[in-house]
Structure to design on (295 residues):
């Protein structure tokens, strides 16, 4: 199933050429499904082996495509489809088994996982590339895997100066009886913490994209604000769970020395400073985050 954001759909509805270009874009990513699925399954095998899970069986596999302008962040439609699949599979399980994967906290955390993985796939920054795959233990015996891949097209005459991106999300739910026997504990806070840190990596990558000329300052401001809201939401959940707050994690990371994100943003600031005042807001905000051990 493929979906388009309203703004992309409006452009496609206006001209035959735009529709043809968007259809071509979606066909390109559809053509990659076999290759992407192979990569996805290889990652799953490697991660299950690392987790000492040897009896996993597939409960569900599917994929969806979202086409949008690069600066658009809303992936709610894909997240809703993925979580609906999760609910359906969980509901079909043994009704006598407690299903923490069905809790509101688990579903909310899983939506963040979907959004983080999909957004990472859209980023051209190497800092974000490793985040486009995710393995999560949603409950004892239930594992969710996600993989995302994107292709983009830019044609000023048709779409304006911004690129249009098609992102494919592949998701697979698997079950392990051995894991149920071991009573592995579902921990929504751990997923929140990982996505909290991953979202900051996306922010660092975004600043790197700006410094490399991959995006303009308007796109940076729009996406950075949306990332900041996601970080704030995740931090609030972490604090509500009374585990390490953002400040505590920052202090820990600072004591371990500069992170890769920290250095990436420092390098980006240096490059942006040579461009004059056009990137002043990005430079000042990035400097403030570095000073506050945000990265």
């Amino acid at each position: 199933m493929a979906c388009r954001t309203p703004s992309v759909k409006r452009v496609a509805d206006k001209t035959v050429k735009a529709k043809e270009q968007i259809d071509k874009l979606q066909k390109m990513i559809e053509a990659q499904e076999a290759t992407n699925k192979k990569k996805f399954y290889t990652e799953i095998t490697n991660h299950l082996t690392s987790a000492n899970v040897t009896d996993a069986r597939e409960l569900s596999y599917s994929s969806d495509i979202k086409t949008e302008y690069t600066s658009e962040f809303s992936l709610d439609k894909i997240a809703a489809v993925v979580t609906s699949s999760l609910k359906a599979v969980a509901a079909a399980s043994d009704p006598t088994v407690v299903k923490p994967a069905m809790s509101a906290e688990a579903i909310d955390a899983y939506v963040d996982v979907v959004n983080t993985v999909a957004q990472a796939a859209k980023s051209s920054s190497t800092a974000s590339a490793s985040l486009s795959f995710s393995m999560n233990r949603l409950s004892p015996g239930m594992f969710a895997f996600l993989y995302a891949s994107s292709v983009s097209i830019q044609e000023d005459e048709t779409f304006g100066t911004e690129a249009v991106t098609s992102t494919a999300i592949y998701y697979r739910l698997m079950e392990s009886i051995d894991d149920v026997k071991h009573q592995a504990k579902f921990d929504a806070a751990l997923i929140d913490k990982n996505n909290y840190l991953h979202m900051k990596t996306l922010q660092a990558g975004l600043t790197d994209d700006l410094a490399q000329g991959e995006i303009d300052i308007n796109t940076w401001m729009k996406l950075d604000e949306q990332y900041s809201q996601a970080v704030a939401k995740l931090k609030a959940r972490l604090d509500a769970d009374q585990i390490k707050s953002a400040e505590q994690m920052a202090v820990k990371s600072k004591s371990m020395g500069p992170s890769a994100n920290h250095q990436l943003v420092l390098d980006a600031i240096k490059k942006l400073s040579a461009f004059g005042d056009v990137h002043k807001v990005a430079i000042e905000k990035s400097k403030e985050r570095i000073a506050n051990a945000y990265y």
